[in-house]
Amino acid sequence: MKINKIVVIIYFTALAGMLWYNLSHVLVNDGVYEYRAYLMNIEHGWMFRYTLVNSCLVTTWIPSLIQRITDCDAMILFRVWPTIFYVLMPVFTYLIAKRYLSTKYAIVAVLVVLFNSHILFFPDMGRVGVAFGFTAGLLWALLEKRLIWSIVFAVLIVFTHYGTSMIMIGIVGASFVLPLFRKRILRQYVIVFSVLLVLTGVWHFGIAGYSGDVMVQTLLQTEQTGRILQQNPAIFDITTREPAVQAAIGLNIDSIPQIIEVIANWMVVGIVTLGLYCVVKRNTDGQFKIMAIAFWGLILFTVAIPWLSVYYGGMRVYFMATAVLAGCFPLGAEKIAKIIHVPPLLIISVVLIVYALSTSGIIYLPFGLEKTFPVAVNLP
What we know:
It is built from 20 helices and no strands. The N and C termini lie far apart (about 45 Å). It has one domain (about 5-365). The protein is mostly helical.
């Protein structure tokens, strides 16, 4: 892979923003459990201790080894380590988009990723953020037909996050079961699918079996699932979905800035969807088409099934998918621009500015409000 100046700028710009956030905000929610597992590994070394996040070696065990060797500040290392890999997502988004688009539009695709609230408002994703970076790398490697890199990223995903490894089994599987590829390309997908399937099974359902058990229990024994099994119509009850999905259709919205944010997100989703339609209609690489369609289908499936919405999250799946789908955004904007006879960059600029102002929380300030993140667990 040839490293160019744009890639370097994207990487270090995103890294600076994420480091500022992680080093100036306290740990909350899942990050607390992950940090406790990390400290336990520093003190005792790795042993699977029936804590779900301890199966995520990349963010619990590897940094603990570094800390024991260097004796650096444990909290600072824990906050810096994930960002090094998380920022690979916008980098690989650019490299994927650049295969099919101009440099200008590839940069627009990167902005769609960077302006998402997962990065602009709350980049403290720990193991999930690292998994997003490796996932984008795997998608790039598959599209570039880099078998060795595909295997490397597949292995890293498995040891980074249990849920994401399951998601990628589905995406890679969907990509090779549809007969659109030549034998050489098909071979690559089959190999990567096998690596993901076998390693996930051996590690998460075998050696570190508790993570596998929790995945199964989460899907089959949650309160939401229980309600659905007892009362089938509950599957049509939007309140059984994650809060972000409920907010997307206007539930629990009580301020003008929230309304603006919902509209901004829907504008981006709508333009991306239109762009995907343009991709399907164009003479584009079949691999990219199938991958994009598979991700869009997965988003709809995750939102439609209540327990999947709560377990992994349709919004999280959507953000992961933007590594591929963000490249559809400038094409959708271009299509709209032709219809209403305005420059494409005008539409792109207006939508992305409103999007960034809302997802970052800046749009809340003129109304005397502050955008907040729901916190369930704080670090004592």
